[in-house]
Amino acid sequence: MRAPVLVPGRASSITFPFWAVLLKNAVFVITQVDDTALSSSHARVLFEGGEHVRHRFTARGFCRTVRWAPQLFRAPGRVNLIGEHTDYNDGFVMPAALEFEAQAAAAAREDRLIRIHSLNNGKSAEIDLSAETHTPRGDWTDYAFGVAVMTEAAGKPLKGADILVSSTVPVGSGLSSSAALEVVVGYALLSLSGHDVDTVELAKICQKAENDYVGMRCGIMDQFISCNGVHDHALMIDCRSLDRKPVPIDPKARIVVANSMVHHALADGEYNKRRQSCEEGVRLLKPALGDITALRDVSFDALEENRDFLPDLTYRRCRHIVTENERVLAAADVLERGDLEAFGQLMNASHASMRDDYEISCAEVDTLVATAQRQPGVFGARMTGGGFGGCVVSLVAADAVDGFIDAVRVAYREATGHTSDVFACAPQDGAGPLAG
In this structure, what are the phi and psi dihedrals at residue 205, rounded to the nearest 5 degrees? Predict the structure, then answer.
């Protein structure tokens, strides 16, 4: 059964107040009579198909108590064209926001409870903002509730809210599903509470939530691009000053993302270990280089001249960051000039550095990168994201995209037994209200 298309707040064949939430793969029609709790005959959840069908009754139970028309919001995932692990070293990155996105339907409450339900996993949870302390739960809700806690800590009092979320960003793919969830929840909570949304400040709050509440010591790139993406452009970001510059993508090329379909979780601490190595490098180089605060402040020549101060592993970790920063700066220049061949060479060099110096790749991703790099029409390919699995990003001539996608999918399946999701994408705008 297909639901009619309904617009929140507009009269329809239903003669009492309702709200309709249009999210990916699902249409919710939530109805209300007076101020009483809704009976099953007055609350319907009509699914158009897809994986959310199995969550029908859980979602209906969650939505039955919602009393106000919702506001709708979106926040995109991202693909990073070049500049991996440089953000927490005050360096440079060049991501683009994706069509994949987290969406939220959110309504304010009269109390201080924040209730959230995910269409992706069918689970609900709540947090009371009036509680004296808040303890992370070690699951997906930490990304949402951590943003609420850190928003209040930043001096922005929040109202309670009922939030229904759905995301098309693949979890564990390196496309920033967690940042998309953080940003869409933060944008919704700020809007419902009457605050103007400063997207730079929102990115900082979401990063702090992931650092201090979730416990992942990430940089600001993922949250920043989800907040501030620019349609048809990559975004060159200085992660120290947070200055940004849109860089156009030449229409002769397309961004193509291939999912390795493997994920080696960062929860084992490898991500944080990489950050610790960078901090150790700065500490050991300070006696020779003076007042440096991050690897952003270290040139390649200075690193080479003082490599004897560093253990070999720390040196290689630092070498990746220092050379990756140089590659990002060069990449912005060649992309603006339309030199796609040079940009592709920088992508290839970036992957080699991640594989050999930073050691954040894995066998399946290396196979997928090599497969992509040898296809006709490809300018360059590299792993994208935090590492240990996830996705590969390629820059491909526009007229070669269809053949590239088919060839990569077949060759990767033959090599690994995994069937990769491969798709061309176009950069999108950052977070904001979702048009109904």
Answer: -65, -45
Q: How far apart are the first and last CA of the chain?
A: 21
Amino acid identity of 344? G
CB 200 within 8 Å of CB 180: no
Query: What is the distance between the alpha carbons of residues 383 and 401, in angstroms, rounded to a whole number?
Result: 18
Instruction: Using DSSP, state whether 196 is helix, strand or coil.
Output: coil
Domains in the chain, ordered, with CATH?
1-69 (no CATH), 72-241 (3.30.230.10)
Kindly give the confidence (pLDDT) of every residue in the chain, 436 residues in length, as a single tens digit, with 9 standing for 90 and above: 223 222 333 322 222 223 344 444 344 433 333 333 322 222 233 223 333 333 343 445 455 555 567 999 999 999 999 999 999 999 999 999 999 999 999 999 999 999 999 999 999 999 999 999 999 999 999 999 999 999 999 999 999 999 999 999 988 787 899 999 999 999 999 999 999 999 999 999 999 999 999 999 899 999 999 999 999 999 999 999 999 999 999 999 999 999 999 986 554 588 889 999 999 999 999 999 999 999 999 999 999 999 999 999 999 999 999 999 999 999 999 999 999 999 999 999 999 999 999 999 999 999 999 999 999 999 999 999 989 899 999 999 999 999 999 999 999 999 999 999 999 999 999 999 987 5
Across 119-160, the runs of DSSP E, i.e. the strands, are: 124-128
What's the distance, CA 245 to chain centroid?
19
| Contact status, residue 235 vs residue 96, Cβ threshold 8 Å | yes
Q: Residues 272, 276, 277, 281: what is their CA dihedral angle, to the nearest 10 degrees? A: 150
Q: How buried is residue 49: exposed, middle or buried, by Cβ count under 10 Å (0-12/13-18/19+)?
A: exposed
CA proximity to 322, closest of 303, 306, 345: 303
Q: What is the pTM of this model?
A: 0.84
Catalytically active residues, by annotation: 222
Q: How many CB atoms lie within 10 A of CB 401?
A: 20
Residue whose entry in the numeric block shows the structure tokens 């993302």:
257
